[in-house]
Amino acid sequence: MKTKAILVDITKCIGCRNCEQACKEAHGFPAESEPVLSATALTVVEPRGDKFVRRMCMHCQDPACASACPVGALKKTAAGPVVYEAGKCIGCRYCMLACPFGVPRYEWTKLAPYVKKCDMCAAQVAKGGVPACVQACPTGASQFGDREELLAEAQKRILENPAYVRHIYGSEEVGGTSVFFLSDVPFEKLGFLAAPSNRPLPTLTAGALGDVPTVVLIGSSLLGGLYWFTERRRQVALAESREKHSTSDVDEERS
Amino acid sequence: MSGIRFPKITLWRVLVILIFAAGIYATYARFLQGFAASTNLSDTVPWGLWVGLGTLCGVGLSAGGFAVAAAAYILGFERYRPVVRAAVLVSFLGYLTVVVGMLYELGLPWRVWHPIVMWNRRSVLFEVAWCVMLYTTVLTLEFSPAILEKIPWKRIREQCLRWHHAVLIGLVLVGVVLSSLHQSFLGGLYLITQGKLDPLWYSPYIPSLFYLSAIPAGLAVTIMALYLSARSLNARFDLSILNEISRLMAPLLGIYALFRGIDLVTHGAVPYMFRWRSETGLFWLEIVLLVVVPLVLLSSEQVRSNPQWLYWTCALVVMGFMANRLNVSVTGLQASAGVHYVPKWTEMASTLAIIAAAVLAFRYAVLYLIIFPQAKQRWIVGAASGD
């Protein structure tokens, strides 16, 4: 299967919140709308001036959360979605610290709390279906399809209509995502994070982790060498003192 | 403590009982009511005091064991031998507090073993988990002679001690490598917070900075523990060793300060050092406590040769170190989180109770085990003259 993605065209969003509702229904969450992402609201529509902005997991190409998770509970699938395997999670919450978009939520009130985030309805997508939120969108503001095709489509819209900001948010942020946004208002004004860089965040830790074998190898041989040196010096000192002792004994005998 | 006399009520005992009572309530709140009732953590502040103080400070301040053991066994600083066992004990108990604290901090603590079988080699936290696990085992083994020599059967005892003696150098060596790895990787955890962590603390070299600051801070804790053992627990050893260890601390702090300074300048954080904001204030607090005042004090022979002065100097280093770790894990992330996090009292209480338990354990170990060399006793493996 080709890698899938979601394209959100902010110019087309009317703020009906059908996507929110469909998402809550699909996950069996209580129906009332919430202002920000929560453990029971995996996508929300935020009003910004006269615009409406959908928030959800960006499904990064090389996700910081997946690299951070010590037990590999979070994974980027070939089909596009970043999925969470609850059975592995230990509840360390490092994914929440690592996510550049601040997306993952935690079930703080539960005694066995898990991480919650949008999984692009991975189970449906695997069966060739469409995510619940996209299916519920009456205006086509949210679209689902092959990642490359959606990028081309977004590009086409920007070229055909000069009203659009000339940037596809998500095309290069933190190395690219699988959720794209088009807008006619600068993204900063809509509360979009200026992403830290266009490099995938996991590359920041890869270097340090790559040093491990070197540190172990050089470190242990250096320490071993130092120990050998210390030990040798001690032996020599010991032998010398013994020698001195025995010669002085001899001297005493002579006198 | 003989007979069934009712223990005298002293200020310290009352304090300890209060700490444990609060700790027990906090434990109840955490495990039977959950995070929402026991912490002020939230989706924007997923890591708070338990990580900042319990884990980052706990591990960092326990660096003394590997540093002193390496000095005595690998670098041949023979004068350190009599205090190696005490230093290892401090570290061992320190790591135990981290492991216990981890059970509070994890959302699903009964899965704490998962990293053993579920691997993610791309995760810094995975490496930290493994190193802490292995190094806690190494510390247990390094400290084991203090228990083994209590085995009442002579042959088994001597066999155990002989085995231990055979692997000791190996243990120390592995301990140094493991410590070096995870002390720096604790800083490495924050490499991925680029754009979130304040520029005063974010640096691509944060792993090295964590490592360089942990060693002098660990030595400071060791000096404090040694001083308290001599003052309150009747441990008899040559106090001039404190002076000796402090001679090592000053250049280590100096190296850290130099490295930190160069780092701040090269990645353009200097303007942030002089802005009027709370982060900058806490940054200077950290620098003054961890580096400036201790370096001034340690440069004076009068301070170094006076155990009490030295004790307070080390206390400053420890406070400065804690300020640094809390700045990285809490303060430095506040602005980007947009939330002001103040730990709930139950977060404090549980951490404090765990630390108090470790302090008590240290006290009883010094009283009932042979932690310091005793007169007329052949000093056996573990902190022995490596005969």
Describe this structure in words.
- The complex is a heterodimer of chains A (255) and B (387).
- Chain A has helices at residues 18-27, 64-68, 94-98, 122-126, 132-136, 147-160, 202-210, 212-254, and strands spanning 4-9, 44-48, 51-55, 74-76, 82-84, 105-106, 115-116, 142-146, 179-182.
- Chain A has 255 residues and is of the alpha+beta class.
- The N and C termini of chain A lie far apart (99 Å).
- Chain B has 387 residues and is mostly helical.
- Chain B starts with 10 loop residues before the first helix and ends in a 19-residue tail after the last helix.
- Residues 376-387 of chain B have low confidence and may be disordered.
- At the A-B interface, helix 2, helix 3, strand 6, helix 7 and helix 8 of A face helix 1, helix 4, helix 7 and helix 9 of B.
The number of distinct β-strands of chain B equals: 0
Biggest interface, CB < 8 A: A-B, 57 and 57 residues
Average pLDDT score of chain B:
92
Q: What is the average per-residue confidence, as pLDDT of chain A, rounded to a whole number?
A: 92
Weakly predicted, low-confidence segments of chain B: 376-387
Oligomer: heterodimer
Radius of gyration of CA atoms of chain A, rounded to a whole number: 29 Å
Portion in beta strands of chain A: 5-15%
List keywords for this structure.
heterodimer, A: 255 residues, alpha+beta, two-stranded antiparallel ribbon, 8 helices, 38% helix, 14% strand, elongated, B: 387 residues, mainly alpha, 15 helices, 0% strand, globular
